């Protein structure tokens, strides 16, 4: 244990009468602090004065290297060589007195150093401890003054570097210049600047020196650079922690990363928009000073990059990509409910209102949420999905709101939640009805205040997220049963969109079936087969409990399994047992009444399946439309409909 400088001084004054040589030593070592040119000089001078102060036969300073080995930095006299096992033993004991006294000189964030005094047999442990503390104090002061003067030189170099960058407005050459000058400045082998393409969950590294065409694309949740953009914290990795490095990239580039330093690039609002990475320090590992230096450079780099004209162009092209994505989302269907739904989506996409999407499984709730996102002005920002049913309560909260390091067992590092990741964009909460009550309470708070606190965190983090929630459950019923918060229900239910089950979409079944058939026939590299009229009737008559997902799977199997040009009803892989039946007519009715009841049920059934489309229903029943109309009038069905 080191004492405070005050206590140390008091103890030294007590020792002075019995160790008069101490006074000369203190004056000499202080002189080294003031005048030594570098660390070796300092150690050499100190070794000399120490030999006098301790009457040792030889004195040496050793320094531990990043690979764990020890290297002599200075000595006086004729020091004996020391074995690795001795170093190992001495490293675990602060002072080893005896024939040879070894004193460990540890400084925070610095490599280990050791002072070895040969033939120092007569010295008391108290005296040795005082010597050790004096050397540590002097060493720390010396290194601090070196760092300060180095820092001044660093700052000057950074300034001239940044001035050069400001004269370049072409983005690729700017990025190139940044990477090249920092590689040189930090004595690294490579450098990359990664720009975060959030909507695509990718990091685009430019330039990656040594990479063909200078461009590298990596997922935004992998490796050190992924961790840096996700957490906004710098990382330094050396060989001992090498498992953190994304070795896939190394393999791809036939390169071995042994040390790495990566810092975030922050915009004016302190949001991460990229990362600056240096790879392989030419000698040893990156130091704390390197990290501070790169963080400083990153501040300037971020400012220059942010004002670069071409970043705007990059964002525009991102918008073009988003527009292309929007065009790709298909909400197929021409039935009245689907036409209305499409109109509603267009109307609400431009707003930030929360949306609740309701409907059975497989009815297209996720497709709808993607349409809302990609047709709105948030489309250049991320769309993040969370399935609330797939996560246990305990994980759900940290997944949504993030956690701080140490918030719970296993929280080895700070992690932002999906809310933060969706910042500026949209969060799709699927199966919201399955969210736990504590989760609901937190969600409500975020929706109301637009701020969140990470699990185990103290500070409020502002979030700007549009929430789209979906469920196949009866939320009002869950509210009645106290399984869903009423206030949250009202919050989410500002706009609700209902997706009818496929069986109620009438002819949409055939439109969808044909589209899927075309899609999968192309995949199966075959001509698209046609659906016979009995196959069409079978499709229209099936209940589709799995909705569009089931229809899609059925058509996929048909495209791959049916080897004819025409698909007949028997060839369809449909489980007919699950189709609804026309209601059984009670046997106590007379024949006319029973026939009428059957006809009414039968017609209603087909009308329902055709989404109210009379022509289609008539066709499915093998009738002319006018005959169906007459029949319906006769059965009193028209009044009901009008
Ligand atoms: N109107 C539609 N047009 C084209 N494809 C659709 C349509 N609706 C759904 N699909 C397709 O059907 C499948 C299921 O859709 P989706 O995942 O959106 O349903 P969901 O209601 O979210 O299901 P779940 O409740 O099970 O999560 C997807 O492959 C989707 O692309």
TrEMBL record:
Protein name: GAF domain-containing protein
Transcription regulation is among the record's keywords: yes
Residue ranges annotated for the Sigma-54 factor interaction domain, each copy included: 331-560
Pfam families in the record: AAA_lid_14 (PF25601), GAF (PF01590), HTH_8 (PF02954), Sigma54_activat (PF00158)
GO biological process, alphabetically ordered: regulation of DNA-templated transcription
Keyword set, alphabetical order: ATP-binding, DNA-binding, Nucleotide-binding, Transcription, Transcription regulation
Xref: CDD domains: AAA
Cross-referenced Gene3D superfamilies: 1.10.8.60, 3.30.450.40, Homeodomain-like, P-loop containing nucleotide triphosphate hydrolases
InterPro entries: AAA+_ATPase, AAA_lid_NorR, GAF, GAF-like_dom_sf, Homeodomain-like_sf, HTH_Fis, P-loop_NTPase, Sigma_54_int
UniProt xrefs under SUPFAM superfamilies: GAF domain-like, Homeodomain-like, P-loop containing nucleoside triphosphate hydrolases
Keyword hit for DNA-binding: yes
